[in-house]
């Protein structure tokens, strides 16, 4: 009976899949590290809001 993990083609396929999973893991870790961080500082958001409130007709 043939062991499916023994052929060179199968091993190469497993190695490609592992490499892809490792890349996906790195991407997921980067996204997780940035999760929950605001895109703009409080000062930038406040400045935008105050600018709008001072001239709402200039959208």
Q: How is the topology of this model organized?
A:
Layout: H1 8-34, H2 42-54
Could you explain the architecture of this structure?
By secondary structure, the chain is mostly helical. The protein has one domain (about 10-55). The protein is about 70% helix and about 0% strand. The protein has two helices and no strands.
Alpha-carbon distance between the two ends:
73 Å
The profile of the biggest β sheet is:
none
Number of strands: 0
Q: In terms of structural class, how would the helical and strand content be classed?
A: mainly alpha
List keywords for this structure.
about 60 residues, mainly alpha, 2 helices
How do you describe this structure in short?
This protein is mostly helical and 59 residues long.
